[in-house]
Write a structure and sequence with these properties.
It is a single chain. The protein has about 90 residues and is mostly beta strands. About 0% of the residues lie in helices and about 40% in strands. It has strands spanning about 1-5, 10, 20-25, 30, 40, 55, 65-70, 75, 85.
Length: about 90
């Protein structure tokens, strides 16, 4: 079992509702939607981000995985190679 830290999140822009791929280093900062140019703070505790997903790289096969936030802190298997991983929480 290998611990894997999320590389970032997928969130919906509060204005245009399009899905955006955002590196975790921008969480808690003001960001701008690349599609509609709307500026907002990426605060994942804000109710407008009630659901989001994370992305991380599988250490076994190096493919990028996308998982719902509900799997953070859980043991899961890679959908490509079935390698066992534990998705760490964003704060870990």
């Amino acid at each position: 079992m290998i611990d894997v830290a999320p590389e970032g999140v997928f969130v919906k822009c509060p204005k245009c509702n399009e899905s955006l791929r955002v590196n975790k280093k921008y969480i808690g900062q003001n960001i701008q939607c690349k599609l509609c140019s709307h500026r907002y703070e990426l605060d994942l505790s804000d109710p407008k981000f009630e659901s989001f997903s994370i992305f991380a790289r599988c250490p076994h096969c190096e493919k990028e995985l996308r998982a719902s936030e509900k799997y953070l802190g859980s043991k899961v298997a890679c959908k490509y190679c079935h390698g066992k991983i534990k998705l760490l929480r964003l704060s870990d």
